């Protein structure tokens, strides 16, 4: 019989339990339990409360007594990454900083197609190893749930290889990997027909395999002038929805249109939104579609951030994700990027913490994580500080000292035996 585990004392434990899903948040809304303990059993939180009282009530539990000051936060959720890829695009980054445009770089052999070529050259096992390594780095930084997109194969066979690699990578990490099919990343250069013909082939040939092999339940699409127009992508997404897939959209990154498709089709999320204006913001705020800001892409491309402050003030659900990819967002550091976004968009600490935990989980359709309360997954981070405000103050330089995933310690900076 598995024994309950009791972890503490924790100087400050932020439950995030009373924070609403939508709209702006103030730091005084944060529920902070001081001198706290977390009681877990198997994968779930049994109880959060005063350390001394829990220790007396559950004397038979396996005690993990901490020395020093720690702040506990829920495990982070990165709801948008492209971290299953081959090679890198350091050349693109250098050219972009030297003044070359995205189009010029693509015409010179760079851009997404460069990553497609490098990714296609790798077999499934190598891609799985790369993805698991990336996931384990994120796990050590406190990210316990990670969405991973395909999209660098853009053919039926290559997309299947990538999505199967993501599934295989899950056995090499303790983090939860949530796979998403982004076969509609762009129309491939080696495709002989029209964009509509390509989308029809993906829908008819790839979707059934995804369902039969239970590879993923989510379909994404890049709605942009350089990829697919709203008119081109809508039939494709409707087909996916009819088959029972959840939808998410790369929306309003350089031009508008994608977020309105997302809202109209009831997508889980609309991601990017750097170009969103008042019309798009209002549509998102009237919906239950999560607005996902991707500050890493803004940093990597040297462009403005998503209008996070306006979205929150008008009542949207705002999540924050890393967009880890080899082209526009190579950093892949969720906490650092969220801290930077907070500075430029004037986000409260509560808004940032919500955006990288339970609101990020909502973008993935998950309700069992992102808060520290009874019944939730026992995914949490212990930061080496006595004051939760230090975490964003350090702008990502403060990482968790300990990471717990589903009731087990998966990373401990003090002990090399917890290598992941």
- Beta percentage is 15-25%
Distance between termini? Answer: 26 Å
Q: What are the segments in which pLDDT stays under 50 over at least 5 consecutive residues? A: none
Please count the beta strands (DSSP E, at least 2 residues each).
16
Any guess at the CATH architecture of the largest domain? Alpha-Beta Barrel
Class by SSE composition: alpha/beta
In short:
Helices cover 36% and strands 21% of the residues. With 420 residues, it is an alpha/beta fold. The strands form 2 sheets. Strands 1, 2, 3, 4, 5, 14, 15 and 16 form an 8-stranded mixed β-sheet that branches. It has an 8-stranded parallel β-sheet with strand order 6-7-8-9-10-11-12-13.
For the structure shown, list the relevant keywords:
alpha/beta; globular; eight-stranded parallel sheet; TIM Barrel; 420 residues; Urease, subunit C, domain 1; eight-stranded mixed sheet; 36% helix
Task: Summarize the topology.
Layout: E1 5-14, E2 32-41, E3 44-50, H1 51-57, E4 62-65, E5 71-74, E6 76-78, H2 90-97, H3 102-107, H4 112-120, H5 124-140, E7 143-149, H6 156-169, E8 176-184, H7 195-212, E9 218-222, H8 230-242, E10 246-251, H9 258-264, E11 269-272, H10 278-285, E12 290-293, H11 295-301, H12 308-313, E13 318-320, H13 334-345, H14 349-355, H15 358-363, E14 380-383, H16 389-393, E15 402-405, E16 408-412
Parallel strand pairs: 1-4, 1-5, 6-7, 7-8, 8-9, 9-10, 10-11, 11-12, 12-13
Antiparallel strand pairs: 1-2, 2-3, 5-14, 14-15, 15-16
Helix pairs in contact: 5-6, 6-7, 7-8
